[in-house]
Design a protein that fits this description.
phosphoprotein, Response regulator, Hypothetical protein af1432, alpha/beta, 2 domains, Sig_transdc_resp-reg_receiver, HD/PDEase_dom, 366 residues, rod-shaped, Rossmann fold, HD_GYP_dom, five-stranded parallel beta sheet
């Protein structure tokens, strides 16, 4: 009926043990005899699996109460069912309170004994099966969770790589150095960290900031590459790079980096006082990612020589930007930025000193 069933029979009276053994032989199980409480514990320790203990309460060395207490308090043994054999009905409540699974009254009733023993063995085997099944399921869930995490990591890495390539495409259009994008990326993440943006969102900002000027792909060369000052009409056309960038990355809400890049591309020229473009957003209507990028973008642009301007000194840059606090820039973020300006200057200087375009996601992660 069951394979490899092991039952411990415990009583200090050999005649009672003989009687129990004879009654249970029909189950074709391994019966282990114990004459005292310590022998019960020794038998449980020695056997690889015990399915049931049928035990008298009055035994030498350790009585049945103490054996029951130890079995039910042991983390490895507490699932072993214990059936107590007793001639005193007053003992039943006590042993059940201690954790006994069932009891058999003396003198034995053969049919009752068989049913009670069979029920306990069946329950034990079902519990073991459920435990084994749960263990297998936990292993499978762990495997599938690991596989899912790997797939998600791969998908996110792919998203990052796409962001990098799109950012470089815009960079090649307006002939800025690869270090400009790298500078925007690293400085944006650092300012985000200082501003208390959660770590996972700072990682998204790190890569999404690469996409701030991706819309320049759609600006004609005659305007994008013009060395002199733009006419009002040309400047109006140049401002369209924000909208173009937003359109390029629209419909990607399931991809956090691309969606964040869309927001940054659209909003990084908005101003705190509402006089920016393309929509005239004001204050905290502007996403914090865009507010961060606008600061580090202008900071790097002012410090860097371009075809249409000289490089400004750190002191000049600070003066120009602080004059725009509360108008162009979020005053809190700008104050935080210049509170740590030496760190940002060191980052900017080191990035431009190593001015070669990054080639892949792996180089950016270093």
């Amino acid at each position: 009926m069951f394979e490899d069933v092991k039952v411990i029979l415990a009583d200090d009276d050999p005649l009672n043990l003989d009687l129990l053994e004879k009654m249970l032989q029909q189950f074709e199980c391994t019966l282990i005899r114990a004459g005292d409480g310590q022998q019960v514990l020794d038998a449980i320790t020695a056997a690889p699996q015990v399915d049931l203990v049928v035990m008298d309460l009055k035994m030498p060395v350790l009585d049945g109460y103490e054996v029951l207490r130890r079995i039910k308090q042991d983390v490895h043994w507490h699932d072993i069912p214990v059936v107590v054999v007793t001639a005193d009905g007053a003992e039943v409540a006590t042993v059940l309170e201690l954790g006994a699974n069932d009891f058999i009254a003396k003198p034995f009733n053969l049919i009752e004994l068989r049913h009670r023993v069979m029920n306990q063995i069946r329950n034990k085997r079902l519990a073991d099966f459920a435990k084994d099944t749960n263990a297998v399921l936990e292993v499978e869930v762990a495997k599938r969770t690991a596989a899912l995490q790997q797939a998600l990591a791969k998908a996110l890495q792919t998203e990052y790589e796409i962001s990098l390539r799109l950012g470089r495409a815009a960079e090649f259009r307006d002939q800025e150095t690869g270090s400009h994008l790298k500078c925007i990326s690293q400085l944006s993440k650092r300012l985000g960290q200082l501003a208390g943006i959660p770590a996972d969102q700072c990682d998204i900002l790190y890569f999404a900031s690469l996409l701030h000027d991706v819309g320049k792909i759609g600006i004609p060369d005659s305007i994008l590459l013009k060395p002199g000052k733009l006419t009002p009409e040309e400047f109006a056309a140049m401002k369209e790079h924000t909208v173009i960038g937003g359109k390029i990355m629209s419909g990607a809400r399931d991809y956090p980096v691309i969606e964040a890049g869309r927001i940054i591309a659209l909003q990084h020229h908005e101003k705190w006082d509402g006089k920016g473009y393309p929509y005239g957003l004001k204050g905290e209507e502007i996403h914090i990612f865009a507010r961060v990028v606008s600061i580090v973008d202008v900071f790097d642009a002012l410090l860097t020589e371009r075809v249409y301007k000289r490089a400004f000194s750190p002191e000049e840059t600070a003066g120009i930007m602080m004059d725009e606090s509360g108008s162009s820039f979020d005053p809190h973020l700008l104050e935080l930025f210049f509170k740590h300006v030496e760190e940002f200057l060191d980052l900017q200087k080191n990035i431009h000193a190593d001015a070669h375009p990054f080639a892949s996601i792996t180089e950016m992660i270093r």
